[in-house]
Description:
Elements: H1 2-8, H2 23-29, H3 32-52, H4 58-86, H5 88-140, H6 145-151, H7 158-173
Helix pairs in contact: 2-4, 3-4, 3-5, 4-5
Amino acid sequence: xxxxxxMLTPPTTIRLTSITGxxxxxxxxxxxxxxxxxxxxSEKLKPLxxxxxxxxxxxxxxxxxIATTILITFIAPPIATLFFIISPLYGIASAAAITIxxxxxxxxxxxTLTMKAGDRKRxxxxxxxxFTVLASAGQSSNIYLIELLQTIDPKLFPQIGREAQIxxxxxxxLGYDPLQ
Length: 180
């Protein structure tokens, strides 16, 4: 029995990569001031990640945001100087655009996570009335809501299917109560 099972199942390979293998994480971790700033930013990102339903590490998002901002800060001034040499008007316009770009690059995760949270809310509210009818029919047939969420077809209710995956993550993997 085990020989047949091992022949029919492909071998699983678990590949763990070091978190410091990413250049932006290594840049942030090795500098205490940047690490402290990334820690504060990741604390601000945690509720946004939870609200948007994205499976992401807030520490990685914070490190990427800070590293991108630093990179733009070092690359952009020579470009603005070049535009200023060509024409002072272009130099002033490029300096203003670079300032906006630096601010947007720092808050890009806030912007995208807030947009994803809005999309999640809209899509859930769109499917919820139809799922409620299905859940009430299941309730009268003695099918619990958690069982219904686990067996829901993602083609029928795509957003409710994603919400079911989030519920499954929190209940089965993280050990939360399904009613929370």
